[in-house]
Design brief:
The complex is a heterodimer of chains A (338) and B (247). In chain A, 74% of the residues lie in helices and 2% in strands. By secondary structure, chain A is mostly helical.
Chain lengths: 338, 247
């Protein structure tokens, strides 16, 4: 008897996620209908930043760790794809490895590189907490930023143009529409993974430790290794987002990994809502679209933008997700208390 | 010696010039409820913190079941079987009563690097957690968030978490702190049931509860244990009366 009821509540929990994915999946149709392919470009940008914001929120919202080096990981992912494509295009081996424009190789490479770097950065940063964690991750972000500028061979501060055609295995994904659906699939996987993680045993430890470390230690768990694992998972998913950005716009530059971009990611997460897995995806969409609309409307768009963010965050304590939650979960509240 | 679960030998801890723990030695027998009483500022909580491992002693040793655990960090001591309920409740505000107990269960079941299965729907966690919650009489509040609990209920939850750890030794730091008369009596009854199954170190200001629950009592004054004995011995001891009860 209980089984169908829990299945129903599980379905209800997933409605916001499914709606977000469905709405995004429909955008190419809208673009075709309106004859405006620019919409797909914007939607791809939304999806890419949604992946990064959802990934960042795994440590911010559930781990209580506000990281300011995630733009760094985003950029590392982008540069791995860009550099491999550069070596492919110029037919020049990277040390002993041939370059590649195949995401089936470049994405795993981005995952591997970002995982190694995140393990080192995390192991050092997690010795601190609170404002010190904020500062040390900020410092790491700037190291990555200036590191990218120093890559003179790959464009330095002009950025790195991808000249070759990006593929995924045998599939040509340089087509704008096809690439959009590839990115959307990655967002869906990210939402699924993070959604499972936060409710797992691992997630319970991470969440409890963010609110009361003493309690977690007292029951016999040292939260350190769990935080490090969460940090690495979050960084790797963010690097995948960066890799997709580079592949999609055929370009990556140090601007994409500045500390202000790290701040943008935190704003997206908070704007959308850090209390639910899908919140930051909404935040990313609102951020990208607002930025676009406001900047075409006035050169002082950042002033209006800041004002709007303050208004939203103050009036909806749980971010934009609160809007959704009041709509979607009214029924389930009654069901659980009834 | 086989029936000694905890042996504390010449423990010392200073904060600046203050000797909070001063040459403290203590033996706790398996299965006994050992109360530690003493005036405010005698160093009771400081002592408990050193037993739990949140504070490192300056010198001295702590032996649990014959193994020296003085150098073990708090989380490993918890795995070795020491559970502490805090004087000031230490909970996770947005976790439910059941979540707290389940967290203690999953901690005892080994590492928590399990990423996929929903912990709240895992019978291996929920069933023992539910049992611990029922033991302390919070079954009707199992789904309530910690931040919505009354003070008395939060104290009960502290105990439920400790029980869910299935400890060998329970450190209870003023389980009745701030409780009303009625809740206090209920808690005393609960502790009377628990002492059948656990070795307990009990710190408590409620003397009625202490004298009804404790098998033995140690009197802590200025970080040093001045007397250990059965309740009736302690009650009539002139030194104890002078140092503590007679004030």
């Amino acid at each position: 008897m209980a089984e169908p009821a829990t299945n129903l509540s599980r379905l209800r929990e997933n409605i916001p996620t499914l709606l977000i994915l469905a709405a995004l999946a429909a955008t190419p149709m809208i673009a075709l209908g309106l004859g405006d392919p620019f919409i797909v470009k914007v939607a791809t940008r939304v999806v890419v930043f949604a992946i990064a914001a959802v990934a960042l929120n795994f440590v911010v919202g559930y781990g209580g760790l506000v990281s300011l080096c995630h733009a760094g990981f985003f950029g590392i992912g982008g540069y791995v794809v860009g550099i491999l494509a550069w070596h492919d295009f110029n037919a020049e081996p990277l040390w002993f490895l041939p370059g590649t424009s195949d995401l089936a190789i470049a994405l795993p490479a981005a995952i591997l590189v970002s995982a190694i770097i995140a393990t080192i950065v995390g192991a050092i940063s997690l010795r601190t907490s609170g404002p010190y964690f904020l500062m040390i991750t900020l410092a790491f972000n700037q190291m990555f930023y200036y590191g990218a500028i120093a890559l003179q061979k790959y464009g330095g501060d002009d950025g790195l143009q991808i000249m070759s055609t990006i593929t995924l295995g045998p599939l040509d994904v340089s087509n704008r529409y096809r690439f959009f659906y590839l990115a959307l699939a990655v967002l869906a996987i990210t939402l699924l993974l993070v959604g499972r993680f936060v409710d797992s045993r691992f997630g319970m430890v991470l969440r409890a430790a963010s609110k009361n470390e003493t309690r977690v230690i007292a029951v016999g768990v040292d939260p350190w290794l769990y935080r490090l694992a969460a940090f690495v998972i979050s960084a790797v998913l963010t690097a995948v987002a960066g890799a997709l950005l580079a592949a999609g716009q055929q370009f990556i530059s140090p601007v994409d990994m500045g500390w202000d971009r790290s701040g943008d990611l935190v704003v997206m997460a908070v704007l959308g809502g850090v209390g639910v897995v899908w919140g930051p995806a909404i935040g990313a969409a609102a951020f990208v679209v607002l930025e676009l609309v406001l900047s075409s409307w006035t050169t002082h768009w950042q002033f209006v933008f800041g004002l709007l963010i303050v208004l939203i965050v103050v009036s909806l304590r749980g971010g934009l997700a609160d809007l959704g939650r009041t709509i979607f979960s009214r029924g389930s509240e009654e069901a659980t208390h009834g | 010696m086989a029936d000694v679960i905890l042996l504390v030998d010449r423990l010392m801890k200073s904060f600046g010039g203050l000797r909070a723990t001063n040459d403290l030695s203590l033996e706790v027998l398996r299965g006994e409820c050992h109360a530690i009483i003493g005036p405010n500022g005698a160093g009771k909580t400081t002592f408990i913190s050193q037993l739990q491992g949140m504070l490192a002693p300056d010198s001295g040793t702590i032996t649990l079941n014959g193994a020296d655990i003085t150098g073990e960090p708090a989380h490993r001591r918890a795995r070795l079987g020491i559970a502490r309920s805090f004087q000031i409740t230490s909970l996770v505000p947005d976790f439910s009563v059941l979540d707290h107990a389940a967290l203690a269960v999953q901690a005892r079941l080994g590492h928590s690097f399990r990423f996929w299965k929903n912990a709240r729907r895992d019978p291996a966690l929920v069933a023992p957690a539910q049992e611990a919650v029922e033991t302390v009489g919070l079954a009707s509040r199992a789904k309530t968030l910690a931040r919505d609990l009354s003070h008395g209920e939060a104290r009960q939850l502290e105990l439920a978490i400790a029980i869910a750890q299935q400890p060998k030794l329970l450190l209870l730091d003023e389980p009745m702190a701030g409780m009303g008369r009625k809740d206090g009596v209920a808690m005393t009854e609960l502790l009377a049931r628990l002492k059948k199954d656990y070795s307990i170190i009990l710190i408590e200001h409620d003397m009625q509860a202490v004298f009804s629950l404790a098998d033995r009592i140690s009197v802590l004054v200025a970080g040093h244990i001045i007397k250990t004995g059965a309740p009736e011995v302690i009650r009539t001891d002139p030194d104890v009366r002078a140092a503590y009860l007679g004030h």
